[in-house]
Amino acid sequence: MRKWLLGAPLAALAAVAATDLRQTRYPVLRTFPVLGHARMALTAIGPELRQYIVAGNDEERPFTRDQRDWVYESAEARATTFGFGTDNDIEFLEGYPIVKQRTFSDVTLSARPHAGQQLPLPPAKVLGAARGRARAYRPESLVSISAMSYGALSAPAVESLNRGAALSGALHNTGEGGLSPYHQNGADLVFQIGTAYFGVRDDDGRFDIDKLVALAEKHPIRAIEIKLSQGAKPGLGGLLPAAKITEEVAAIRGIPLGEDCASPSRHTAFHDVDSMLDLVEEIADRTGLPVGIKSAVGNMGFWEDLATAMVPRDRGVDFITIDGGEGGTGAGPLVFTDAVSLPFRLGFPRVYSVFAEAGLADDVMFIGSGKLGIPENAVVALALGVDMINVAREPMLSVGCIQAQKCHTGGCPTGVATQNPWLVRGVDPTTMAVRCSNYIRSLRRELVKVAGAVGVPHPGLIGPTDVELARGTRDAHTLADVYGYRDGWGLPGEDDARAITEFMVASGVAEYTTAVTPPGIGPRD
């Protein structure tokens, strides 16, 4: 018996060694049979070892431990305070944002710890109002859930996000994969049209506007977004790996099982700015809804042509979503995630400046996405002229994501970004919806508090001179100086500023210390 117990493992090791010596795929195993597997095992669990043991609080990417902890604590509705000072290397970091508080201001925001947490906090602009859309709409929340399709995310994850959006008054973008049953749990929707036209295409895969009109009449769709590109893989179409395509996903999208689903890189329903605007106006006329575009920022010729075409004001998009090139939830080649298209802080100011120069900044709702669900990133975006914040990976964290970075494999261990039946059991929509709502409310609360420190009644009134980017302890420059903004850029127009100020005062979150409430935003210096 003892010989058998000893002989069986030795025989197994000998078999492994023989296999290693014969195979030609891995040189390290041919050179070091059996032992080479230890290296491969350590390599496989290296990310986990670094995440939990090796990396410091501010070393990991895309989200540091401190940032993830803030999301987790927010989702649990616990205190999001940190003690004993910052552990960021402010003295040595390039481009570190510094918000400049004011000592005196006519505006006072409540000092209560959770002030503003229950407030929906709408944006300063009304979506679609500038172009007179029949169903123009002021969103309840300036924080919305960005485009993530069913298929890329699991059914319970999508349902959790939709329920969380409903609880917090946020919009929920369907992503390009079509409108699934899991998007229909109470939240208002932004329906995204991708290059494959999932959910709104005919039998030949072409865009079918009649199907879109029927969807808009049946479901709580408040806006239509035409996706031109995304930060994860700008210039490429969407990619859903075969491992994540179930029968239900295939049926919703109209695609075969067992194959990667790769969307075309460009649209077939239009081919230039002129034909795109024709389609935008046709969709808006047929549905009455605001219509916008989403894109990462590369060559600026497109944006200059778009602004020029919109100057006569007979055609135009109602909103523009700028996605940073830092990558996102989508699967894409590493070179595209790392090196194609501009990061948000470089790309957005260029686009905004083109429209501001043309006198169109007040006609467009600007939406930003790309790691903007962390308060300091959101503040910078708002100061640059963003009207609404789209969040994606952060609400994923709120419903269970642990940044395992397995989204593209179908093996997400928490069940958020997989279709594996066993793994998706881990996501309970009832519980996770509350966590998602808590996170969105906490982010809005933090933005309200920063606005109070700056001396304005609403986060959208934080301007490009209120934030500086530091270069270590050598010097710092305002966003206006860094990006060449002119006076008034980055802020809503006077009418929008007055309207949102009145809303904040009426809601009880902001109050004026002067005897008479000013009609606008009041003195700030």
Automatic annotation (TrEMBL):
Protein's UniProt keywords contain Lipid metabolism: no
GO BP: glutamate biosynthetic process
Residues covered by the Glutamate synthase domain: 140-456
Signal sequence coordinates: 1-17
InterPro entries: Aldolase_TIM, GltB, Glu_synthdom
Keywords: Signal
An annotated Gene Ontology molecular function: glutamate synthase activity
Record-linked Pfam families: Glu_synthase (PF01645)
Family: Belongs to the glutamate synthase family.
Protein name as it appears in the record: FMN-binding glutamate synthase family protein
